[in-house]
Amino acid sequence: MVESRTEFKLKNPPEDGISSVQFGPNAAKFLLVSSWDCTVRLYDVESTTMRLKYVHAMPVLDVCFQDAVHSFSGGLDQTLKMFDLNSSGESVLGTHDGAIRTVDYCSEINAVVTGSWDHTIKTWDPRAPRCTGTYQQQERVYTASLCGELLVVGTAGRKVLVWDLRNMGVPTQRRESSLKYQTRCIRCFPNKQGYALSSIEGRVAVEYLDADPEVQKKKYAFKCHRIKESGIEKIYPVNAISFHNQYNTFATGGSDGYVNVWDGFNKKRLCQFHPYPTSVASLCFSSDGSALAIACSYLYEQEEKVESTSDNNVFIRYVTDQETKPK
């Protein structure tokens, strides 16, 4: 693939599948990358180099920034770690009884929120540091997204739970995915009106949080990440969603190796980038919307492949208004 100033690969990529990419809170300069190689890596995007890495005992499934110099991460070792990116000091906030699948930081209530395969969401105070609450989700947590003080959780069994982090007594809403197949990713609209949900069966649903029947009429779903070859349609999982903070448009990444950008409110595809070498595992727009991090890793959708599946790469693409702004 041709490298250019608008798109390039980061040096020293992880040695196994990439689980999550996250830009720093303020700019497109720093990127955290978690991986099945048991590492979390911090990259300086401008110089395309790795600044540091730290390890967990087992594969890492998610990572997030608290601020420009602190990260949180969790994975199959069931342990939530906090890492100081300046001093390289690390501490353990606590554990789950199963793999930690999602890690988010909610600045509104200054809490870390983790979702686990042990059927719970936990909240943590990073200053104490201690667990401040454990909340049953009925099923394994597969994906979660913050929407201000709201948390939208996607679990096994196609369930969606909406929680208010200021009052975690009971979920404010219990829903079922409007897609027939397993939920892969949920991400909330920056304007907090709703969320996009993707499934393993080449579809995305656009949902609204307001329970008013008039608002609910606006929800819809669409097919994507499907390729017709000699009359047969191949359907791929939609693994990743990331929103552009300014425009409320979103990118999706699939196991077909494509990234599409959508205008969810006007039900339009804005663009499709060139094909990537393998499945798109994770996506993240920078907070200013200038760059999109694209993690590519073979996700064993076709089991073991004969050809090399060792390519795990993070591409940084500087995006234009033409690609991301509603027309």
Key structural traits:
about 325 residues, four-stranded antiparallel β-sheet, globular
Helix/strand layout:
Blueprint lengths: L6 E3 L8 E6 L6 E6 L3 E6 L4 E7 L4 E8 L2 E6 L3 E6 L5 E6 L4 E7 L4 E6 L3 E6 L4 E7 L4 E7 L2 E6 L3 E6 L8 E4 L6 E6 L5 E6 L3 E6 L4 H4 L3 E4 L2 E4 L2 E4 L2 E6 L6 E5 L4 E5 L4 E5 L7 E6 L5 E6 L16 E6 L2 H4 L3
Antiparallel strand pairs: 1-30, 2-3, 3-4, 4-5, 6-7, 7-8, 8-9, 10-11, 11-12, 12-13, 14-15, 15-16, 16-17, 18-19, 19-20, 20-21, 22-23, 24-25, 25-26, 26-27, 28-29, 29-30
Q: What's a concise summary of this model?
A:
With 327 residues, this protein is mostly beta strands.
What does it look like?
This protein is an all-beta fold. Strand 11 and strand 12 form a beta hairpin.
SSE-based structural type: mainly beta
Low-confidence residue ranges? none
Estimated helix fraction: under 10%
Q: What Rg, in angstroms, do the CA atoms define?
A: 19 Å
Based on CA inertia axes, which overall geometry fits?
globular
The mean pLDDT is 95
Range of strand content = over 45%
Number of helices, where a helix is a run of at least 4 consecutive DSSP H or I residues: 2
Q: Multimeric state of these chains?
A: single chain
CA(first)-CA(last) distance: 29 Å
**How is the biggest beta sheet arranged?**
4 strands, antiparallel
Number of strands: 30
- Please give the order of strands in the largest beta sheet: 1-30-29-28
